[in-house]
Amino acid sequence: MKRKFILAIIFFALIFIILGKKTFQNDDPIFTVDNNSGEINLGEDNTVEQKIDDEILFLLMGVDANGTKTYKGTRTDTMMLFKVNFDTGETNLLSIPRDTRVLVKGKNDKITHAHSIGGPELTMMTVREFLNLDIDYYVKVDFNAVMEIVDAIGGVEIDVPRNMEYTADPTLNINIKKGLQVLDGKNAHDFLRWRHNNDMTLGYVDGDVGRIQAQQMFMKEFIKQTLKIKNITKLPKIIKSYYKNVETNIPMDVILQGAKLATKLDINNINTETIPGEGKYIGEASYYVYDEEKTELLIMEIFDDYLLNE
């Protein structure tokens, strides 16, 4: 029971350590939340609060930048909506393709552009309107966070499905061979970013949806492997490696509540979904055009307690 409690607390901590900024005193992990964003305007319902006891809903934004402090010109490379229930132990993860065509400030655009225009606030407002969900909490991380924690735990074992080779600039030089292997921080970053090779002869058959599936698979393995007994003693180091690369508005009392209830969390009960749709060209621009009917049904199935205007 004691081991289960420790693992559950670490699992919860990871969701918020990966997902929440921490500060430290005297090398002890004193958890405090630094809300870098200040007050955010979420429209008519501007109350930022935990809606359901023993549960939390938050939007994870992975930005294609070195640091989370600025947003101008910085797009979201990854967007995942998490619902974590501490009573049933269930975690639901919904990925939103970065090229999803939605209304951003009243105009059709790729959802990834919302952050580059108006930061976390506009991103939250855009996702809320798109999915008709009362989402109040967000977590923003850059890829340094993933690289540092992967290195801190000694790498993540992944069965890489294909050779991955892509070079865009000195900061993105991908060269990962197919097969089962332990990815260090850099290669984990590259695995998450890769979509196709330079010559376009090899890539995910279904475009960005294929990359999302790879990200979801990595997330599951990442959490499971981080919770191994050998990594428990590394938790303070893991937390410290993160704190400069994360921004969140999740309050401290919600984190503490979750920590107390986390014994029921089940690391094998992580359900993953992706917004249904398909890639299309509209004019000269490529978009991910979501299926409105299937998306609505999926949202009602997973997030019915958070629907707006109900």
* Total of DSSP H or I helical runs spanning 4+ residues: 9
Largest sheet: 6 strands, mixed
Helix content: 25-40%
Query: What value does the Rg take, in angstroms?
Result: 19 Å
Count every beta strand, where a strand is a DSSP E run of 2 or more residues.
14
Low-confidence stretches: 1-13, 16-38
Gap from first CA to last CA = 41 Å
Globally, the shape reads: globular
Order of strands across the widest beta sheet? 11-6-1-2-3-12
Order of helices and strands: HEEEEEHEHEEEEHHHHEHEEEH
Approximately how much beta-strand content do the residues carry?
A: 25-35%
Structural class estimated from helices and strands: alpha+beta
The pLDDT mean sits at 76
Structure description:
The protein has helices at residues 2-17, 113-131, 143-152, 185-193, 208-226, 229-232, 235-240, 252-261, 292-303, and strands at 55-63, 76-85, 91-95, 101-104, 107-110, 137-142, 156-160, 164-169, 172-176, 179-183, 246-248, 270-274, 277-282, 285-290. By secondary structure, the protein is α+β, with helices and mostly antiparallel strands.
Observed structural traits:
310 residues; alpha+beta; two-stranded antiparallel ribbon; 9 helices; globular
Summarize the structure.
The chain has helices at residues 2-17, 113-131, 143-152, 185-193, 208-226, 229-232, 235-240, 252-261, 292-303; strands at 55-63, 76-85, 91-95, 101-104, 107-110, 137-142, 156-160, 164-169, 172-176, 179-183, 246-248, 270-274, 277-282, 285-290. By secondary structure, the protein is α+β, with helices and mostly antiparallel strands.
